[in-house]
Amino acid sequence: MRDNVFLRPVMGRCIGTTRFFRNEPLLKALVHILDKIPHPRVLFHGCSNGAEAYSLAIAWCETGDGKPIDIHATDIEPSFLDQGRLLTHERLTARAREMVTFLPPVSVVDFRSRQFYDATVCTNVLCYLEPRDQREAIARIADYTTYYMCVTAADPTAVRQAMRHANFKPCLTNWLSIYYGWSERLSWRHRKVWKLPYLPFLLPNWRYAGTTLFRRDVPGDLEVESA
Predict the structure, then answer these.
(1) Digit-coded pLDDT (tens) for 9-39
(2) Which of 82, 137, 205, 219 fits a disulfide with 156 by CB distance 3.0 to 4.6 angstroms?
(3) C-alpha–C-alpha distance, residues 70 and 93, integer Å
């Protein structure tokens, strides 16, 4: 399977658009920041068939030093998760596959967790919710996320309000590379919330709407280093 081939599993009204290595600058940033944590735990919401969760596992295996990582993934559609357990890729080794665990199907709003994750990825998911529900989803994610949150394709005002309330702030290091990493979403006509203008500064609240990676604001904490 080629990296640039989009996968679009469909079940009823659910369309799980995804692909392996969908945003490589974001993957690189995640590997870099998670490498500072002894045994990182990551959660993917709206994972579709798991291609993007597997991509992180592959990148971790290929660039890391053998340190363990736990990657959990879930989606609202059960059939997508079933496909994920059988998904193959020429770079998906047995070791990388074992790093990914598919959780029971659940929506990002209804998900509850008694365990904490060092990073939670919720990209291209919140656009299916109303702004009020987007704010609620971000608040719930913050309850079980210790350090980093990845959010994109949501109402700019809702993201800004929810992130500030949850005490998360944009990571601006390498944010532009990550922004243009969403190449399939770039458009001169960006009327839909999941579309991105070629000039990110045209976005309202661009620091929140144009940024994918956010970190919990800890007094005395330093900005994320360049990956």
Answers:
(1) 444 444 447 789 999 999 999 999 999 999 9
(2) 205
(3) 15
Beta-carbon contacts of residue 52 (< 8 Å; ≥ 6 apart): 18, 19, 20, 22, 44, 121, 123
Rounded to whole angstroms, the Cα distance separating 11 from 215 reads 34
Distance CA 88, CA 7 (A): 12
Q: Which helix (H) or strand (E) holds 135?
A: helix 131-143
- Give the DSSP letter string of 186-205: B-S---STT-B-SSGGGSTT
Query: Which of 15, 17, 20, 16 shows the shortest CA–CA distance to 4?
Result: 20
Interatomic CA distance for residues 90 and 176, integer angstroms: 29
Class of domain 10-216: alpha beta
